[in-house]
Amino acid sequence: MKKLLPKAASTPMRNYVLPALAFLMTFAASPVQGDPVPVTLGEAFSFGVLAGSTVTNTGPTVVFGHVGVAEGTAITGFPSGMVVDGVLHSNDAIAQQAQEDLTTAYNVIAGEASNQDLTGQDLGGLTLTPGVYSFSSSAQLTGSLVLDAQGDPNARFDFQIGSTLTTASNSDVIMVNGATSENIFFQVGSSATLGTGTVFTGNILAMDSITLTTGASIPEGRVLARNGAVTLDTNNLGPVMPVIVPEPSTATFLGCVGLPLAFAVLRRRGSRKHEAA
What we know:
The chain has helices at 14-29, 93-110, 248-276; strands spanning 47-51, 54-58, 62-64, 66-69, 74-76, 82-84, 88-90, 116-117, 127-128, 131-135, 139-141, 144-148, 157-161, 165-167, 172-176, 184-188, 192-194, 199-206, 210-212, 217-225, 230-233, 236-237. By secondary structure, it is an alpha/beta fold. Strands 1, 3, 4, 6, 7, 8, 10, 13, 16, 18, 20 and 22 form a twelve-stranded parallel β-sheet that branches. Strands 5-2-21-19-17-14-11 form a seven-stranded parallel β-sheet, with no helix packed on it. It has a three-stranded parallel β-sheet with strand order 9-12-15, with helices on one face. The longest helix has 29 residues, at 248-276.
């Protein structure tokens, strides 16, 4: 009679497949070092200025986009300042939604894996390529910071700053080789202060307050404060607007305010082309 050999104990396929799938899912969910996570500003994108407590302005500031506050209610210094292509939102539904979207974007950027720790270094004099840069405490900009997109129009530059962001007088942020302000984010753990005459670029997302001293400008970008105040003093903020043939009623405004701002933007673009060359 033919002897039957005992069957070897078989291991169910799922004992191999399930652990393998779990490993792959964990790997896919883990952020790649220096690879920014997709982020959107939502309703906050339509704001040039957004504060948590108050917005205070002195002088002929020009803001492109909405100016708002939530949960605070005070907005002062307008119409001394001027709002273009936007309105004032004092703790209304739009400002409240913008604050919620700001908080979401802030937390996404704060949670990214850092590409390079710049703690203790001055941003001035640096030329940076796309990535996530972190400061465990404060960040300082003295002079020029160049952001080089290397020909990628979708290149992101994210800065995680543990406490304060401060710029010295007449400092600037320069975009070259396709960099765009919509993809530049400064996530600030406490407050940001732009020194006199600073020409900044990008989106400042601060936990507390943001102060623009006399003559500081953000021709491409916005200032968004979660809890504190935004303080303005004779500043220009907002995205570059398309050139439109003015109606007679708006010609005076463009001659007094719009054209000087346009010349400043063109001068900056010329300097960027020079840097890129």
